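Folding Task

Wanted — backbone structure
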Amino acid sequence: MTNEEILRHIDHTLLRAVAPWAEIDQLCTEAVFYKTASVCVPPSYVKRIHDKFGSGFNICTVIGFPLGYSVSAAKIREAEAALAEGAGEIDMVINLGDVKNGAFDKVQDEIVALKKTAGNKILKVIVETCYLTQEEKIRLCEIVTLSGADFIKTSTGFGSGGAALEDVLLFKEHIGQDVKIKASGGIKTREDLVKFLSAGCERIGTSSAVALLGKT
C-alpha cells in the first residue's frame, strides 16, 4: 500500500478546542497537497474554510462533539448550520446515556433524524467504543445499519481510549453491506494505518498521517 493510497483514506483532523486559524489553514493546505479524503474540523471553522478553499474542498465536521449528550434538536440545528456553511460530511456523536439506559430506540431515532438532515451528504456515527460492552457494540452496528447512516466510527479521540483493531473486525462482522467503517483515535504509525485499512476501514481520522507519510 503506497503512501498516496493511504492518504486517500485519511480524514486529516484537527479538533483541539484551542486550535487557531493558522493551524486550521495549514491543515487544509496539507489536505489539498496530499489529496486526503477530507479535513475534519470544528464546526466554527467550516464557513471560513469553505470561503477560502471553495466548494470542491471536502470539509467534514463534528456534531454533538465530543460527549454526545446534547438534545437531538440541538444536534439537528448544528448539522443544518454546518451543511449550510459548506460541510460535506457530518460525524455525529451518539447519546451514550441513552445506550446505557437501554433506550436504543432513541439512539436510532436520532441517527435517522441526522441522516434526514444530511440528505445525500455523508453521515458518520461515532459510538465511542471505549465506553461500550461487546453487546452494546453489536447492537449499535445493527442500529447504525437500520438508520441509513453511511459510516460507523469508533471514537472521538477524546474518550478514555481510541480505535482498536478488534472493534473494527467486530463492526465488519455485524454492520450492513452499505455501511463503511471509520477508525479514529490513537492511530499514529504507518504500520497502524496499514493494519486498520487492511482490516476493512474505509476512512481513518488522524492528525498524524500527513506528517508521517508526507516525509517519505
